[in-house]
Specification:
The protein folds into two domains: 3-280, Spore Coat Polysaccharide Biosynthesis Protein SpsA, Chain A (Alpha-Beta Complex); 285-366, no CATH class. 30% of the residues lie in helices and 26% in strands. It has helices spanning 45-53, 71-77, 95-109, 127-141, 190-199, 213-223, 225-236, 243-251, 259-262, 285-291, 351-360; strands spanning 3-4, 7-8, 11-17, 62-66, 86-88, 114-117, 123-124, 146-151, 162-173, 176-185, 202-212, 270-275, 279-280, 300-302, 305-308, 314-317, 323-326, 331-335, 340-344. It has a five-stranded mixed barrel. A four-stranded mixed sheet has the order 14-16-18-19, with helices on one face. It starts with a strand and ends in a 7-residue tail after the last helix. The protein contains eleven helices and 19 strands. By secondary structure, it is α/β, with parallel strands linked by helices.
Length: 367
């Protein structure tokens, strides 16, 4: 694999930056989504993602796909990203159109490109393992496979999708092995997830994708012809005066689909690279509490706290108020200037229901 220093020739990285991270409400909001927050250190999640990918490719070969509400803030957070490398979706339409458009724009500029897509709001602690997995995936992608990096499961997780691998090796080497994938499966129940863990064949789907741009174009033409035709038309007008009009007009006619169900689940050649890189989707307050240093009583604390007989809890204060707790266990308390959340740590997945209720009550300022 030819490289320029540590950078890989013809590698382009795409960072989809959508969603608001409703399970991290009230800290994460529509105007300040999860990926724009410094949850794990001084750098925000999208800045950390940008730092990871620019270990492998220069900043002028990084694209960010986002909504219009976040483009200016992303540009401020990523000053090394060229302004023209932010692709704005007129409306949310699923990851398939978003990644298809990025693929079409890259292909017009670099027909030999390998495109790698990584979510803006995930955490990776083992950067060398990340690099090795990406390099292995690129080798498989050069064969024409659509490749995903699957994370070695550590527990029977019901909140993630899974990828089942076969024993057929696509590529192997010192940096890792890519296997032919047999299927993608949606979030299982606990019994099924336990069976997956015990089998050793199933990996967590972390939405990390790598492919040759022409390989994805061919699969889109077969599986999602309306999307492929639409992004081709948009890409053709990208450098013209009609760009915004064509983009908005054509975008509104394309079907909504995810890259997982719309393409990967039905693609003819899919490979998966098993990896263990200290990955987390930072999905909810319970998970975030596990990623941050805890005190001797198992508490994760941000802000000023006075605690008495408090254990295994997460207390996160963004306000100027002191938080005091007495005799609680396994509880999450999040205090912001305009909202307070108190939730049993075992029910953090249900925080999104609060956001749904606020929408139903038309409490837009709190969403």
């Amino acid at each position: 694999m030819t490289t320029n220093g540590s950078h890989i020739d013809h590698l382009w990285a795409v960072i989809p930056a959508g969603g608001s991270g409703t399970r991290l409400w009230p800290l994460s909001r529509a105007a300040r989504p999860k990926f724009m927050l410094p949850l794990l250190g001084d750098r925000t999640l999208i800045q950390q993602t940008f730092d990871r990918v620019t270990r492998l490719t220069p900043s002028d070969r990084v694209l960010v796909v986002c909504g219009p509400a976040h483009a200016a803030a992303i540009a401020r957070q990523l000053p090394d990203l060229p302004e023209g490398n932010i692709i704005i979706e007129p409306t949310p339409n699923g990851t398939a159109p978003a990644l298809a458009l990025a693929n079409a724009l890259i292909q017009r500029q670099d027909p030999l490109a390998i495109m790698a897509s990584f979510a803006a709001d995930h955490d990776v602690t083992d950067l060398d393992a990340f690099d090795r997995a990406v390099r292995t995936a690129i080798r498989a992608a050069k064969l024409g496979d659509l490749v995903t990096i699957g994370l070695t499961p550590t527990r029977p997780e019901t909140g993630y999708g899974y990828i089942e691998r076969t024993a057929e090796v696509r590529v192997t080497g010192d940096e890792g092995t890519a296997y032919k994938s047999s299927r993608f499966v949606e979030k299982p129940d606990l019994e099924t997830a336990t069976e997956y863990l015990e089998s050793g064949r199933f990996l967590w789907n972390a939405s990390m994708f790598i492919w040759r741009v022409d390989s994805l174009t061919n699969e889109l033409a077969r599986l999602q012809p309306e999307i492929q035709a639409g992004v081709t038309e948009i890409a053709r007008a990208w450098n013209s005066r009609n760009r915004e009009r064509v983009h908005a007009q054509v975008w509104s006619t394309m079907p909504s689909a995810t890259i997982d169900t719309g393409v990967m689940e039905n693609a003819e050649r899919v490979a998966v690279v098993p990896a263990d890189m200290g990955w987390s989707d930072v999905g909810d307050w319970h998970g975030l509490g596990e990623l941050i240093e805890q005190d001797s009583a198992g508490n994760t604390i941000r802000g000023e706290l006075v605690q008495i007989d408090t254990t295994n809890s997460v207390v996160w204060s963004e306000s100027r108020r002191m938080v005091a707790t007495i005799g609680i266990n396994n509880v999450v308390i999040v205090d912001t200037e305009d909202a307070l959340l108190v939730v049993d740590r075992g029910r953090c997945q249900d925080v999104r229901k609060v956001v749904d209720e606020l929408k139903a009550r038309a409490k837009q300022r709190l969403i």
